[in-house]
Amino acid sequence: MRRKFVAGNWKMNTTFQSAQALAREVASAVAASNPAVDVAVCPPAPFLWSVKQILAGSPVLLGGQNAYFEKSGAFTGETSLDMLLDVGCEWVILGHSERRQFFGDTDAIINKKVAAAIAQKLGIMFCVGEVLEDRQANRTEAVLTTQLEGGLAGFTSAQLSKLVIAYEPVWAIGTGVTASPEQAESAHAFIRDWMASRFDAKLAAELRIQYGGSVKPENAKEILSKPNVDGALVGGASLKSDQFMGIVNAAAELSR
Ligand code: PEP
Q1: Which fold has domain 5-254?
Q2: pTM of the entire predicted model
């Protein structure tokens, strides 16, 4: 059985103080409930180190929200994967739709970032998902195919052992509109089948596919109970520890 994985993407939110407070709350709630799921938080880059200190001794994992593929050099404003590792990250989110939309992350650039993260042995939450126009035009699977083919070009299945895919329909991110459990299940099943035919059945069977898009404690159980939904990548609701823990606990209940 695939272990469910719930990660909080704090995006460009929190202050130094509030990030520490949120990390403290999540760490102590996870320690108290000891859920049988993986839990990660992905704070803004400047707060990673201080959050790591708070998470010390806790099972809560740390992730970066993005990274650049070069190792070092004259790349003003960028964060390398080495730097993420250095401050204690185990995970990195790559290909998030906000990176694709606002910062020019193409499939080719994401592919280089995935390659660099594989080289550093970091866990990767690789995000894919269609915009509303594509869904309405029945192009969801075509878009997912392009993003999967582009982002994962050139790798072998052995290299993808630490890969998680996050299916995040762009029209559901931060909008309060959630994909129906059936819509999520169908996209996840498509992704798993695609991975089986492009790579192999074992990798596809073991691959965890998170759903992301307005997940809240109220809708988490229904979505997470679908057979191909192995966790959640949570934006807005990860900024309140009680809401985030509501989602973690929903995943944990389904894992009993
Ligand atoms: C996200 O950006 O990864 C996300 C899923 O955001 P939200 O939960 O706010 O829709």
Answers
A1: TIM Barrel (3.20.20)
A2: 0.97
